[in-house]
Specification:
The complex is a heterodimer of chains A (596) and B (353). In chain A, strands 3-10-4 form a three-stranded antiparallel β-sheet, sandwiched between helices. Chain A is built from 26 helices and ten strands. Chain A is globular, with a radius of gyration of 28 Å. Chain A folds into four domains: 227 residues, Orthogonal Bundle (MetI-like fold); 66 residues, no CATH class; 144 residues, Periplasmic binding protein-like II (D-Maltodextrin-Binding Protein, domain 2), CATH 3.40.190.10; 99 residues, Glycine betaine-binding periplasmic protein, domain 2 (D-Maltodextrin-Binding Protein, domain 2, 3-Layer(aba) Sandwich), CATH 3.40.190.100. With 596 residues, chain A is mostly helical. With 353 residues, chain B is α/β, with parallel strands linked by helices. Among the domains of chain B are: 143 residues, Rossmann fold, CATH 3.40.50; 66 residues, Roll (CBS-domain), CATH 3.10.580. Chain B contains 17 helices and 13 strands. In chain B, helix 15 links the parallel strand 11 and strand 12. In chain B, helix 7 crosses helix 8. The mean pLDDT of chain B is 85. Classes of the chains: A mainly alpha (596), B alpha/beta (353). At the A-B interface, helix 9, helix 10 and helix 13 of A face helix 4, strand 6 and helix 6 of B. Chain B: This is Betaine/proline/choline family ABC transporter ATP-binding protein. Chain B: InterPro entries: AAA+_ATPase, ABC_osmolyte_uptake_ATP-bind, ABC_transporter-like_ATP-bd, ABC_transporter-like_CS, Gly-betaine_transp_ATP-bd, P-loop_NTPase. Chain B: It comes from Streptomyces flavotricini. Chain B: GO terms for molecular function: ATP binding. Chain B: Keywords: ATP-binding, Nucleotide-binding, Transport.
């Protein structure tokens, strides 16, 4: 079979679109961002518990007292695990995606229900949209829209559109043909037939479709977290990156709470808006008695609205008072004046350390700093697209050469702050007979044929798989396991404690060399190439926008002792306390704060 | 008042647009329905012509697949005839635009369906008011008129109920009220009573006849039940395989079936309830008038005639409205008629002796 260059064609197609339709993507991006910001501003404004109260009143009205209590308890839980802001971002993301999806899906569904030809054309397209792994949409999504919420929302829309269209079409098509004929026989116009007969009768099915859209949207937000979508998805992605079971569970349960609330409420809303459903409800309520009556008690809409409004007003009032007490930016160094800077980082130890160091330093000088954890590819596209201002962890010129080649012309190199580095395969010192890469040959069985790798997008992994294994003839005998840095470190720790054979991809500087007794495998053929410097890369134009920050970054330097010390400090403090660790480290090393 | 007329109406369903016209040409030159089916076209109605006078109930009778429902749907333009014209109120419906056709449907023609086709998301009153809502009648007025129509159909007090709370017969009354509320002159009824229980069906037939006495609508009624056709129809058309095989009054069809098909059909009909004295009487027998015995009129059903004949010792006199004798029915003739026996009486040796 000749190789079809399908991927290449799609690639060049995407390039073409990016070159010629960027205005369109910018417009879409601006629209979606505007929608998201608007909704997010509203949802995020009230105090968490008050807003939970409003949501509970809505649940009370739609489903009854028990649902209200459970909803309140659920949202209180989200707040108590400190994920409220993330939950609201996620909710905004889902709402925007749902809104846009419905605006597209319902008319499409109506169109498809009226024309067999449209339906026939649409069906395979919808199949394609629904079954293509949703992550695939993120790739062109990032290229067209940059990292942030937009590609996540767009991917969600594409992924969630099919059930919306299908259920609308199905709902309308399954309306009894005799009823449509009856409407027709009384001279109803096609439009009125749709509005008076078909849509009302299709409503339960359409609402089920909307419910599906929301659920799919929620399932997409985790994936959107990978491209800087933030919210609970970001928390989950962070948890995966750090192998943090606790955070993962908390974020996961928050998503579940949100999902259950949205699912039950849209289900109830479906019954509420459809005339048939309303009748069934009224009957069921009349039949209920005793405790069931109390649990299912639902306030009159007027009371419900009043309750929600009062809570909303209280919320707004509290927020207004709370807003006046914002902490003033500190000191005479406050050149930032609250300007925003966003730093992107990959969860590698030196990246986390330097990023949080800079976050702290810049915040002391009055900037508002946002630290976004991103996937390496997303980080470079984000920088090139201008959504991220700078990153401090580019390994150049060797390891990340492929990224520099692709994006270098859209980036500014603010110089190296640490070097030289090295990348190596490392084994514990108790592996007495292995000292060089060449020694690995023939010992595949002992290592179970595995070399524990890190993120597949890391440059080291490319060199290892593409060049090093071949040069040392390890091809076929060893397999490089894709994973993550925390995963690799966890595996190293596990094996080290049991004194098992293990080979990992590691680099210097790294705190692991201080914590364990390890041996870097020699590379007599020089396959790893020369050492890198760790560079700070900024988006094109950042140096002009923030000349002081750029000059601070240019003059930034750390020694190996300083860096490993900082890394160890962060490692000690634990997840979520990076910035506290940086602060206490800075107290011990005032010279760094001064120098920068 | 308005007359409904169908002139050489054809309806052919074909896959391609050109098929239908070609099929009509083939049918005109004598091709059969089966030959067309081989080409993938279906001739649902072939050369149907009839005329319905104002205030008349015209029944189209046929088995399923005979094309009667298709024919009905061409009468209000839900289906467009492939050939031929439908004239209503002097207007050729086939020449109207969609918009004009909708206007005619909303004001002049209404329809009652086999499975009632009530809107489940509307109350009984809102269902009855539907046609008026389409016409754009103001809410208060249309609810008032809908309530009147419901009362006319014996549903006063059920306005606030929902269709699924009603029995089948009551649901069809709502369907009837919905059709009557618009004050349309022409009522199309598509097997409207077929889905009902026999007893309810009979009630509904009686009610329709009673309403018709008062309202004098023009009604086209579709059924597969010949008894129903005989009971309701002023004129009956029998359809088979898309063609109208016989048209006439109930008596015409019972006494002079046009072909074996119609004849086999009428076997199960209770002739004594459909046929009247008119069908069996002969010239007046001299002297049968002055005796003062009970007499009958020409439209007395045979069943009732038998009851009279059983008590009268001679031929029963048939009189007109003024009491003038127009004919007589001898008992042997009556018995022969019911027994469908047209041979001469046999001679019995013992009686003769």
């Amino acid at each position: 079979m000749p190789r079809l260059h399908l991927g290449a064609w799609v690639d060049s197609g995407v390039d073409f679109l990016q070159r010629h339709l960027s205005w369109l993507f910018d417009a879409i991006s601006a629209l979606v961002t505007g929608l998201y910001d608007g909704i997010h501003a509203v949802l995020d404004a009230p105090a968490p518990l008050l807003f939970a109260g409003i949501l509970a009143v809505a649940a009370w009205w739609l489903r009854g007292l028990l649902a209200a209590l459970l909803a309140f308890a659920g949202f209180a839980l989200v707040d108590s695990v400190d994920l409220w802001a993330d939950a609201m971002s996620t909710l905004s993301l889902v709402l925007v995606a749902t809104l846009v999806t419905l605006v597209i899906a319902v008319p499409l569904g109506i169109w498809a229900s009226r024309s067999d030809r449209v339906s026939a054309v649409l069906r395979p397209v919808l199949d394609f949209m629904q079954t293509m792994p949703a992550m695939v949409y993120l790739i062109p999504g990032i290229i067209f829209f940059g990292v942030g919420v937009v590609p996540g929302i767009i991917a969600t829309i594409i992924f969630a559109l099919p059930p919306g269209v299908r259920m609308t079409e199905l709902g309308i098509r399954q309306v009894d043909a005799e009823l449509v004929e009856a409407a027709d026989a009384f001279g109803t116009t096609p439009r009125d037939t749709l509005v008076r007969v078909q849509l009302p009768l299709a409503l339960p099915t359409i609402m089920a479709g909307i419910n599906q859209v929301i659920m799919l949207g929620l399932s997409m937000v985790v994936i959107a977290g990978m491209v800087g979508g933030g919210g609970l998805g970001g928390a989950v992605y962070r948890a995966i990156g750090n192998v943090d079971i606790g955070l993962g569970f908390e974020a996961g349960i928050s998503i579940v709470i949100l999902a259950m609330y949205l699912d039950r409420m849209t289900g109830a809303l479906g019954r509420q808006v459809s005339p048939l459903g309303r009748r069934t409800l009224a009957k069921a309520r009349a039949a209920a008695s005793g405790a069931a009556k109390l649990w299912n008690h639902r306030p009159q809409p007027a009371y419900a609205v009043t309750g929600a409004v009062v809570l909303a007003l209280v919320a707004g009032g509290l927020n207004a008072f709370g807003g006046s007490g914002q902490p003033a930016a500190a000191g005479a160094d406050a050149v930032g004046k609250g300007r925003k800077i966003s730093i992107g980082y990959i969860p590698w130890d030196e990246g986390i350390a330097s990023t949080y160091l800079w976050k702290e330093l810049l915040e002391r000088r009055g900037f508002q700093v946002e630290a976004k954890q991103l996937e390496l590819g997303a980080l470079f596209t984000g920088l090139a697209g201008g959504q991220v201002d700078f990153q401090t962890d580019a390994w150049l010129p060797v390891t990340q050469a492929q990224y520099w080649e692709k994006y270098g012309n859209k980036l500014d190199d603010l110089g190296s702050w640490y070097g030289p580095t090295s990348i190596e395969l490392t084994v514990p010192s108790y592996m007495k007979d292995v000292t060089s890469l060449a020694d690995l040959k023939g010992k595949g069985d002992r290592f179970k044929g595995r070399i524990i790798g890190i993120e597949p997008s890391a440059g080291a992994m490319g060199i290892l798989k593409g060049k090093l294994l071949k040069e040392y003839g390890l091809d076929g005998e060893y397999q490089v396991v894709d994973g993550s840095t925390p995963g690799m470190l966890a595996e190293l720790k596990r094996a080290y404690e049991k004194q098992e054979p293990v080979a990992v991809v590691l680099w210097s500087p790294h705190w692991a060399y201080a914590s364990y007794d390890l041996k870097k495998l020699q590379d007599p053929k020089g396959a790893w190439g020369k050492g890198d410097g760790i560079h700070t890369l900024a988006r094109k134009g950042f140096a002009q926008d923030e000349p002081e920050v750029a000059s601070w970054l240019r003059s930034f330097k750390l020694t190996e002792a300083q860096l490993t010390g900082l890394e160890a400090k962060i490692q000690e403090a634990g997840k979520g306390k990076e910035q506290q660790a940086v602060r206490s480290w800075l107290r011990e090393h005032p010279e760094v704060a001064k120098a920068a | 008042m308005s007359t409904l007329q169908a002139e050489h109406v054809y309806k052919v369903f074909g896959r391609r647009p050109g098929d239908a016209a070609a099929a009509v040409r083939a049918l005109r030159s004598g091709a059969g329905r089966d030959e067309l089916r081989a080409d993938g076209t279906t001739a649902a109605v072939i050369d149907a012509s009839f005329r319905v006078e104002p205030g008349e109930i015209f029944v189209v009778m046929g088995l399923s697949g005979s094309g009667k429902s298709t024919l009905l749907r061409m009468l209000n333009g839900l289906l467009e005839p492939t050939e031929g014209r439908i004239l209503f109120d002097g207007q050729d419906l086939t020449s109207l635009s969609r918009r004009e056709l909708r206007h005619v449907r909303s004001t002049k023609i209404s329809m009652v369906f086999q499975h009632f086709a009530l809107f489940p998301h509307r109350s009984v009153l809102e269902n009855a008011a539907y046609g008026l809502e389409v016409q754009g009648v103001a809410r208060e007025e249309r609810l008032r008129r809908a309530a009147e129509a419901l009362e006319l159909c014996g549903l006063a007090g059920w306005e606030a109920s929902w269709p699924d709370e009603l029995s089948g017969g009551m649901q069809q009354r709502v369907g009837l009220a919905r059709a009557l509320a618009t004050d349309a002159d022409l009522l199309l009824m598509d097997e409207s009573f077929s889905a009902l229980d026999p007893l309810i069906r009979r009630d509904m037939q009686d009610q329709l006849l009673e309403l018709q006495q008062r309202l004098k609508k023009t009604i086209v009624f579709i059924t597969h039940d010949l008894n129903e056709a005989m009971r309701l129809g002023d004129g009956i058309a029998v359809m088979r395989d898309g063609r109208i095989v016989q048209q006439g009054t109930a008596e015409d069809i019972l006494t002079r079936p046009a072909d074996d098909y119609v004849a086999s059909f009428i076997q199960d009909v209770d002739r004594s309830r459909v046929l009247t004295a008119d069908a069996v009487m002969t010239d007046p027998v001299a002297g049968s008038c002055a005796c003062g015995c009970p007499s009958v009129t020409a439209d007395t059903p045979i069943a009732d005639l038998c009851a009279v004949s059983a008590r009268v010792p001679h031929a029963v006199a048939v009189t007109d409205e003024a009491g003038v004798v127009v004919g007589s029915v001898p008992q042997d003739r009556l018995v022969a008629f019911i027994g469908d026996e047209d041979r001469a009486p046999v001679r019995c040796a013992e009686v003769a002796a």
